[in-house]
Sequence to fold (901 residues):
Amino acid sequence: MALRSIASRTALWVLVGSMVVLAAIGALLLSLTRAQILQHTHHEAAALAANAGSQIQARIDRVAVSAQMLATIVATRQDDAESLLRDTLSTNLDMDGLAAAFTPSPDTADGSMYSPFVRRLDDGSLASRNLSQDSNPYWNSNWFLGGLGCASGCWQRPFLSLSRHRQVINYSVAIEREGHPIGIINADVTLDWLHQILGSLDKPAGAYAFVLDSDGNYLAHDNPALVGKRGSPALLNALASDQAGAMRLRVAQNPRARGPVWVYSAPIEGTRWRLGLVVPEYQTYASVRHIFMLSLALGLLALLGVSLITLLTIRRTMAPLGVLADRAEHVARGELDFELPPARRPDEVGRLTQSFDHMRRELALHLEDLARVAREKQRLASELEIAHQIQLGLLPNAHYLDAVCAQFELHAALRPARAVGGDLYSYFMLDPQRFFVMVGDVSDKGIPAALFMAQTITLAKALAPRAQTPQNLLQLLNLELCRGNDSCMFVTLLCGLLDTGSGDLVLASAGHEPPILCGRGAPQLLEFPTGAVLGLYEDSTYPEQRLRLRPGETLLMYTDGITEASDHELQMYGIERTVESLAQVPPTADTAAYIERLLGDVDHFVADAAQADDITLLALTWHGAGAPPTGIDIDNRLPDVFVALDRCEQLLQEAKVPASLHGDVRLVLEELMVNTVEYGYPDGRPGRIRVLLQSRPGATTIELIDDGIAFDPLQSTAPTLTGDLADREQIGGLGIHLARTMTDEMRYTRDAQGNHLLLRFTYPTQDGSSP
Amino acid sequence: MTLSLHSEFSAPDRVVVQVGGRLDAMTFGELDEAMLALLPRLADGGTVVIDLAHLEYVSSAGLRSFAKIRKNMRTRGGHTLLLNPQPQVRKVFDIVKAVPVNEVFASTQELDAYLDRMQRQITEGDDSDI
Fold:
């Protein structure tokens, strides 16, 4: 988690990368330095060895020179030998003892010969004795016999002097007289000084020195344990190979030295000894290693510092980025009012900050723009919704039932493809006998079509009383619509005028789809000559078509929204399917069934494809002339009401209205009439109530007419029903509520005669439910 | 057909009123009058059972009469139960939600079971809420 920030990652990588580079350079440097250091060490060590060799040589030379001088002197002054020896010994501390041993001559074989041996005691005083009186005659011993051959002096093998507890080596020089050796001067040289010399050498730390004699034994060694032992074969071989100078041995003989060692040797002149200086390899490199380690530590420290600085710098540089990331989340939430870090430098971060600020401001503007557009859109939508409501208001009810005599019935449906559309239908009673109906379709869609539709429907209604016939109406309408129609909109219109008494129907069409006649046998397409569409040609005329509807027949009028309804394959529904669909409707079905069936089939055909055009359907059924309604007239008195109720019940029985309806009809009439008697005449004046009752197959319609004060039961508010009438303070409004609930349809109008209330009771169907 | 009324005290605190025929704006006065005479004779906390088996028709005026009886009984700590309404009457009751459904009984058995239950509660000294 700590490496989540770029700063810490970069710092880490800088650290790692620099360490790799440092290590590589260090290794290269080390290897170069090593070679140099080695060379240097070689020089130094060789010089040291040579120097030590010459020091030893100088000491030895003194012994040798002293001994040789003694030999020369003693050759002539044999009797002074002891004093000479004493003098020499006292001046030369390297010598531990001096002996002048003479070869016994025949005349002195009895031991009278004096062979003095002077030696230094531990307290520094000198003691002497006569060697020839030793129990073992020296003239037979090896050292004496060997010494006789050394005219110019030679070093003997070292040996451990038992009497003096120290390593001692002899130097023997023959005493010659007249070319013949007459004895030897034998100097005992202790090797302590050799040790001292080796010890006093300015050796590098860890190095040690040794002196090998001619046989390869250690004469002296910094490690006293090795003195007197034989040098290792590897060492001897190396020395024998005469690579004087530097030799590398894998393993040193001295257990104190670890690892490989370098051996530097120098011969000691005058002897066959060799001085060796051993420097362990690790010691050679110790200094460079030390420096390397120090540099490494320093370098690491420096790198840590660099990393730290990198971390801080990057963190400081990147800090605005973190703030920007936070701010971006604000932007995502739509909050655009926030502080931005100051753009300190015109670098990437600074530019990003500036762009961010710019983006924020642009975004705010854009959002504001968007909100404005959305408001505008909402306003338009609400305007369209209002327009939609207004347009619906222009259309009459979708259901019209002839109130007075139930001789015809009309159902209509209009479905705009958009909020507003160009389809229209309208109907109205031209006079008490004739019913005017029309269906139209304005070219184009949307708002222009809706305006043109409004104009058409309004004009039609206004012109109808003057026109009196469909063909006249179309002609008048055409003239009006042509006027000022620069946009060349037009409307197709189908008009019909029904004589409600006879079923006579006059049709005229202005380029509209032909109507379909249903009800008896197969549906029949009524194709007849039509005039031009309305709004384009002022001189158009419209031929009329007359036919007579038989009772129960239905005329179906529609717009091309039906026939041109398309499914996903753009296949159109067409007139054949329309006719087929209508043929499925049973002849006894009511008017609404045609609309429901056809709309249902079209919907099924179209499935979920979008509706392209407005759809309008209108079905007009003529029920036949029928018997005139029976009227009952009563005064506005309660007993008369019950007389009328009994009479009504009698009429219902005669008309074979289903018995289950009798109670309902009676109840509704009682409630309404009692209400009228009790509240309709507050001034107490006498009044008249008229009941018009007409029963026909399927339904009974009753019209209640009274001359009381205006009262529309449909406008009374429904009572609050608590579930217990005894809870109610004022028991009123129940009767009207009952009447409204039990009537299938109730319509109220008021005219000069007074209140007209049309009631309709539909007969229960076979399965007992109301249609 | 007009209204027919018949009442019978099955106990001092219980009266059964059989209402038959039509109860409408014309006849509701008869019921009101009969009850006016009948109810004071009933002990406080008693029960009026209105048998509707023979009532063919009721209008809002009749509903008002029933409501008056129920109000009257309620103020005296009594109960009004309706028995056996016919479909036409039942329909009217349902439309205006005239009485609580648990006070309408489809048969004498149902009513008796209810009255027994009530009796037990009274003897147990808890007649305050049914």
Summary: The first strand of chain B starts at residue 4 and ends at 11. Residues 4-123 of chain B form a domain with the Transcription Regulator spoIIAA fold (CATH 3.30.750.24). Chain B touches chain A through 24 residues (CB under 8 Å). Residues 126-130 of chain B have pLDDT under 50 and may be disordered.
